[in-house]
Design goal:
The chain contains five helices and five strands. The radius of gyration is 19 Å and the shape is elongated.
Amino acid sequence: MWGFPVDSSTRDFKEVEVAVCPHGLMCLLCHFHFRDSKQVAVVYFSNGYMPDNYTSEQSWDARLLMERSRAVKCPDISAHLAGTKKVQQVLARPGVLERFFPDQPQAVQQIRATFADLY
């Protein structure tokens, strides 16, 4: 982890720590230390969208640890999963969206309009 002192006269935080995620995951961990002793952690994932991005049990364990943490995740696991082709493929099947949005045909139509063509 690398620590960066910050000009505290212009910021509310005094230090930012940045590290590369463990076990081959492509992500950054940022830890902000504020002058009032509060801390905020952010995890930014640049991959992890596909199961083959997780090359070992340790990488799955690392992702689980980060998801269970109080850190802000970008994107979070629900956004990660919603962006996968398989989830989109299932949601595109007739009747699936209607199950989640009964009596809301306009909402279903708006959601379907965001889908890419699937082959």
